[in-house]
Automatic annotation (TrEMBL):
It is an enzyme of class 2 (transferase). The gene is ispD. One of its GO terms (molecular function) is 2-C-methyl-D-erythritol 4-phosphate cytidylyltransferase activity. Its EC number is 2.7.7.60. This is 2-C-methyl-D-erythritol 4-phosphate cytidylyltransferase. Belongs to the IspD/TarI cytidylyltransferase family. IspD subfamily. The keyword Metal-binding does not apply. It comes from Gloeothece verrucosa (strain PCC 7822). The record marks 13, 20 as: Transition state stabilizer. Keywords: Isoprene biosynthesis, Nucleotidyltransferase, Transferase.
Length: 228
């Protein structure tokens, strides 16, 4: 299974002065943890890391430090996550039929989650890891008043990995560019093209490190996991 890791962001919500994936968690860059999990997956055979060229020297150091026998390629990122994934898709080897896409910022995803998604992709055209929403969610209008309380049983929080047949996802990205769709994940492009996307059980600990508090929570989870 081919894996693309979007890692070309800035981390504005983190408020750091550089790519948040280079910030450290228990002494190692966030991207190191993500890459380690990808290497430990039994199903992943090829890894593409999508980054900005100014981060490539640091990414190369990380790639050299994380042991693993899988080929790892660096791919030039874009202005948005959507553009970065588009670039990643163009850089896949021509014979790649299916691909998983996993945010570098979800650095606590386990190898088992990669494997579960890779196996599930043998039975569908598109999928995402997701978890059932625990909160009661309100739909609120522009004046700050609640308009609706959707049935929580139908609400799932999207995660990555997200997996797709390569040719279909390329087509959806092309449609997105032609029609100026702006989306925050790849499943949304599939949905807009009326293609089916299956839910695969995600992991509660598979948080996306977005703000400083996420980094503190990630450290707590990792300490528990490593018995430290
Ligand atoms: N132009 C971009 C923007 C984001 N990403 C990646 O997409 C993932 C999810 O994005 P997000 O958490 O929003 O990361 P940032 O864009 O870095 O954060 P922010 O939105 O706070 O600036 C991250 O692994 C990020 O590196 C990317 O590859 N290319
Ligand atoms: C793809 C994603 O990680 C799914 O949760 C997410 O949508 C990335 O972008 P966001 O803008 O931080 O939601």
């Amino acid at each position: 299974m081919y894996l693309l890791i979007p890692a070309a962001g800035m981390g504005k919500r983190m408020g750091s002065d550089r790519n948040k994936l280079l910030l450290t968690l228990m002494g190692k860059p966030l991207l190191t943890w993500t890459l380690q999990a990808a290497h430990a997956s039994q199903e992943i055979t090829w890894i593409g890391i999508i980054g900005q060229s100014y981060d490539f020297p640091d990414f190369k150091t990380i790639m050299a430090e994380v042991s693993g026998s899988k080929p790892v390629e660096l791919i030039q990122g874009g202005e948005t996550r959507q553009e970065s994934v588009y670039n990643g898709l163009q850089a896949l080897p021509s014979h790649a039929q299916q691909v998983l896409i996993h945010d570098g910022a979800r650095c606590l995803a386990t190898p088992l989650l990669f494997d579960r998604c890779a196996k599930a992709l043998q039975t569908c055209q598109g999928l995402i890891a997701a978890i059932a929403v625990k909160d009661t969610i309100k739909i609120v209008d522009e004046s700050g008043y609640i308009q609706d309380t959707p049935d929580r049983r139908q609400l799932w929080a999207a995660q990555t990995p997200q997996g797709f047949e390569v040719e279909l996802l390329k087509h959806c990205h092309q449609q997105g560019r032609t029609l100026n769709w702006e989306v925050t994940d790849d499943a949304a492009l599939f949905e807009r093209c009326q293609l089916p996307v299956k839910i695969v059980e995600g992991e509660e600990t598979n948080l996306k490190v977005t703000t400083p508090v996420d980094l503190a929570i990630a450290e707590f989870i990792l300490r528990q996991r490593l018995n430290l």
